[in-house]
Amino acid sequence: xxxxxxxxxxxxxxxxxxxxxxxxxxxxxxxxxxxxxxxxxxxxxxxxxxxxxxxxxxxxxxxxxxxxxxxxxxxxxxxxxxxxxxxxxxxxxxxxxxxxxxxxxxxxxxxxxxxxxxxxxxxxxxxxxxxxxxxxxxxxxxxxxxxxxxxxxxxxxxxxxxxxxxxxxxxxxxxxxxxxxxxxxxxxxxxxxxxxxxxxxxxxxxxxxxxxxxxxxxxxxxxxxxxxxxxxxxxxxxxxxxxxxxxxxxxxxxxxxxxxxxxxxxxxxxxxxxxxxxxxxxxxxxxxxxxxxxxxxxxxxxxxxxxxxxxxxxxxxxxxxxxxxxxxxxxxxxxxxxxxxxxxxxxxxxxxxxxxxxxxxxxxxxxxxxxxxxxxxxxxxxxxxxxxxxxxxxxxxxxxxxxxxxxxxxxx
Length: 412
Hints:
Elements (H helix, E strand, L loop, with lengths): L22 E2 L20 H7 L6 H17 L6 H14 L7 E3 L1 H9 L5 E3 L2 E6 L4 E7 L4 H4 L7 E5 L2 E2 L5 H7 L7 E8 L3 E8 L1 E3 L4 E6 L3 E6 L6 H14 L4 E5 L8 H9 L5 E8 L4 E6 L9 E5 L6 H12 L2 E5 L7 E7 L5 E10 L15 E2 L18 H13 L1
Parallel strand pairs: 12-13, 13-16, 16-17, 17-20
Antiparallel strand pairs: 1-4, 2-19, 3-10, 4-5, 5-6, 6-7, 6-8, 8-9, 11-12, 14-15, 14-19, 18-19
Helix pairs in contact: 2-3, 7-8, 8-9
């Protein structure tokens, strides 16, 4: 699954990527990815040519203009110019073959600007486009959600929403169809491991934007589950972290399994509550520029720390995981993370809509390129086969959690 969030000069969102770009369905912010949004003025014809002095853009712009003129004047039926322009822009983004470089309509763009911490109506899942199956992959399930009650699981592939078949072209429309008013229903078709096909009807509910839960385990060990790094996640995390510290916990376990990512800036702030003086993550842009997030070590945690990760821990979850591992402050337990390490920038277009463009990759402090590589845990532990895709796992059968408890107790 992104620089400091700047919507209207200072809001910015990370958009989770490829197979992990996390969209929190139902009016959650469009989280397609690793996660980070910056707004900039739209490029004019003059500024485009100024961006790359070695390439004359005028010929390309003239070709686009000719195509629009030909279709608008000679096509057998009349077509609205706005529709033609939208299609042209969408075609440009699709030519990148990156599902997270995409055109946002004005409606989608405005919805993204106002989405964030409010309660919204939907089924309560984190989603992404899965290129290999041309479907929507469920990355995670929110607590107390319709999806959890309907027994949806991480790894489920949504192939149809109502009567609309999921494809690269219909992905966003299908995601939008999962949204809706409280107490209304939505029908979906899912494919589960071993090609099991199921149809489910879910009743939408109000989904609370809280993405952190916590408790104290036996032995006075603090446990925190972060569902995604979005929706004021730093504030949510700090409140519950401070509460756990007030109870004099003897260790801390942070569960990042099935976490699709979120905001880079908030993730860095969470890291600053835990780590010694170190580099947290390094963003690298096409032109070679770098942005390094650093921790000064003033709030270093003074009890043993373990993070739970799996193959669906992505983007911002990998930033925190990499920082903990590289700093030596704690260990990663579970399975290799997903490998989503790219950043999207939101560029508003002149007069209507916006572009989401992948603009940077990020690297751990030790130099590991996260994208398509992921992060290896310090201690590899598999879940029981029948539980590996479950969201709610009984603690006595959660082999990864039990190993983390064992590690914490060994360090006391």
